[in-house]
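Chain A, query sequence.
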Amino acid sequence: MQYSQGKVGRVFTLRLENGDRLPDCLEQFAKDHEIKTALCTLIGGADKGTVVSGPKDGDAPIIDPILCPVREAHEVLGLGTLYPDEDGMPVLHMHASLGRDGETMTGCIRPGLDVWLVGEVMIMEIEGSELLRKKDAQYGLCLLTKE
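Chain A, predicted structure.
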């Protein structure tokens, strides 16, 4: 286990609008407002995009993701963290559940997802954290690490 302690700093409330692209718009907001680390929540609608919904084979040495397309408007609820990569750029890691007509899909929104109608986001800045996202040689993913 690796950990870092911090404290809550600024708190931002955002209203995302129809067609805003996640995670791009949140990473750009973080860059513009010099937010290094944060906890992010999302509630609203999503449409047009892709979520990662597990690996094809959990025992494979290299992760091959299952990509699930989102083609119609869905309700969405998401939770994520924002940490800098090795170059200091903010990177959002958010998982979300999307529902439509009694069907639900859950996954990572990293490949990109458009807001449908409205998305409400709370960003709670964490000050003092020493973690960053660094590419892990074993998994090929950018994982939180204490460098």
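The radius of gyration is 16 Å. The first strand starts at residue 7 and ends at 17.
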